[in-house]
Amino acid sequence: MNVFFFEVSLLLYFLGTALFLSQLAGRLEGVSQSAFVVAGIAFFFHTLALVSRMIEAGHIPLTSMHEALSFFSWALVLVFLVVELRYHIHILGSFILPLAFISLISAAALPKEIQVLAPVFQNVWMHVTLSLLGTVAFAIAFVAGLMYLIQEHLLKSKHRNALYHKLPALDFLDDLNGRAISLGFPLLTLGIITGALFAEFTRGSFLNWNAEQIGALGTWLFYLVVLLGRVTVGWRAKRAAYLTVVGFAGVIFTLVGVLVKGQHPFA
Amino acid sequence: MNIIVVGLNHRTASVELRERVAVSDAVLPEAVARLKCAPGVVEALILSTCNRVELYAIVRDTAEGFDSLKEYLLKMAPSVSAEELLPYLRCLDGHEAISHLFRVTSSLDSMVVGEPQILGQVKEAFEVALTQKTTGLVLNKVLKKAISVGKRVRSETGIAANAVSISYAAVELAKKIFQNLAGKTVLLIGAGEMAKLAARHLVQAGMQNVLITTRNYELAADVAKRFNGLPVAFHDFPREMSNADIVICSTGAASYLVSAEDVQKALWTRRNRPMFLIDISVPRNIDPDVGLLDNAYLYNIDDLQGQVDKNLEQRRQEATKAEDLVKGEVILITKWIKTLEVLPTILALRRKADDIQKAEVVRILSKLGPLSPRQEELVEELASAITNKLLHGALVALKAEADSANGPLFAEIAQRLFDLEREIAASAHKEHDDQVKSPSQGEPS
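^ inputs. structure came back:
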């Protein structure tokens, strides 16, 4: 059942993404409305998929890469829906939905079998949830940064096209960027701590110096610098936008690395 | 019955003439009430703004109505002679008059296409007419439609979308850099007219802190008072700049007053919070290199003018969409008015036939003497069958022609053939009384 719901939501996310992307080009007011509704329905089915999977598995479904990516998309869309309802920035969907869709289609390509958990993995979901929520926050920062760079380019070049009118004000994007980082960083920190504790518990050592642990620490340090730079010396606006766009590329790189090598001790 | 408009506007007449004819708000109620009493006028409305003075009326006879309205205008503006006024008057009737009103309300006829005031001005004129009870069935419907068309044009086309003045363009840009202008600070360097105008728009948009600096400190203090702002000593402004989110520069200085170095320093002090700099002075007063700095957005007068021109061009494109929308609505309402011309004839014909039928039945029954109820019924049936069958063709033809161009002609023929003038006059009188009692009532849709 959960796979059926998953596939329905995948289809709807595809439709939503297409609508949001078509909104980027056109001036149609109605499109953003219907895109938002489609995204909402997709999110509903996605939630059903996650819940039914949890019931079928008998544990929180965060134990395979498929489940991790699915949860990542789900949380990303949740944040989008909340921000959209609060601030009515339709164009946010044109950036976030494609991201969620890419993540979800990657999840679809991965083995969907429900893992039988050894008792020792019963509590791994905490580490996974925290790390993934941190990643969601960085994804939001990335989107805000990307939108900032586009809008800043349009303002500097004095080129005003349809995109210029749809993108929100620079300081709003900078603010969103800053807030996302300052929320994502503690989440990632907690994710790393719980991961280390978990590694200590299962393997007997906090740190094994494997690629994905180094990647995680690198990401953590990077965002620490970004955050401190913002608070102390005013690394905001354009610089912050650049850094978060680059930083998220690093996050993706780590994630893909984990995916390709399959090193993460999920199962 | 026809709808007509007589008036002058910014296209036909100079401002000198317009202001001599203009009707001030104070005298408008009385003026429109008097217009309603002009010969041949059934309903009346006066629209008087700085760009137009127009008299709208429903008249019994078009030619008589035009003469009547012209005469009224001359009487209303005694300082203007007929030779001065008449060549500049624009007289329209029927379809064209409605189309004109709709275009005016949609601000397609405005000096700046898409400007927002005219819709409110039409509403006000309509309200005055309503309180003076000078409008009736037709004008009420036409004006309500005009207002709703005006609203549709604003919301469904981009006609009013973007700024078309330099100062508004500046505000629009500011809103793309700062989400919320409240709590932000603007620094005016020099107090040129355009700078003050831009500052006023920014304050209207929510900006609270205004700093002003000019070489003459007293002048700065004087202008500052008007904006509830603070004067800044001229030699001090480069330091104050770090507090300013927006800098508007308009002085007569021949060289750059704001260097890239000054702005870079300000940005450091501000910890890179963005700055929006507007240079509306000619020659320029802000070093163009400022535009190369990160987080500083420099726009000069040509940049802003360029945007205004682009926006105007866009409005013109949107205006064609608006024209189509207006055309469609004009056709609909014109149809409705035409049915209105035929409807009384149909009703009068029906009523006259009924009256004759009833009278004849009563007469014949009294002559026949006592009849059984069934026999009486048959006599009534006979009478009603004859009238119905006789009228059927005429009524169908009238209804079919109601909204065509031939409608009024058919109505007139029917009136002549069946001798209906008296019935129509009587019912028009009754309708008029109803209208006066409650102007918003009786609107077939």
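The radius of gyration of chain A is 19 Å. The first helix of chain A runs from residue 2 to 25.
thumbs up if we can close this ticket
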